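Board notes (copied after class):
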Amino acid sequence: MPLEATAKGYADKIFSNSTDEIIQSIRSEIGATKNDFAQRNMLKSGMFFSAYADILVKQIRLLGQARTDSLLKAFEMAGIPFDDAAFHETKQEAMQYCHGAQHNAIGHISNMIHQEFGFQGVPANFHKSIASKIESGVSGIMARLARDLSIRRDETVLEAHKAAEERKHAH
């Protein structure tokens, strides 16, 4: 059974609160990383952009998990069991979120690379290497979220089976 509007709004509010906290933390981490590389005069290095990509992937992981957690909480509060339909709804939304965030992260870091090097000065395959790093990281995040949701669904099914067995043996 899909989430109705109130439960969906509830999930969105929880996610919004989590997003604020995560973004603040990530901004601090980005600032510290930029300062570290600036002090070493390495802001134009592959190491800096690799570290920056790692931070963007971390942000996607934290936000993807927060989105999933907010939806799970909404199902729980609405009293809707986490069955196959709930699993697919949550998984689809989490995957869409992560895919969109991946696209945004690649666009963001591409703009940074072009600002730093200019359109003609980007080293060969540099952009592709950084984009692949983000894509690989997000693929791993999506696989982990899907697996965790599958485990959650299996737990719900097993709990229902256990309860049915206990009722059957109680009579």
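Comment from the instructor: The chain has a mean pLDDT of 94. The two ends are 31 Å apart (CA to CA).
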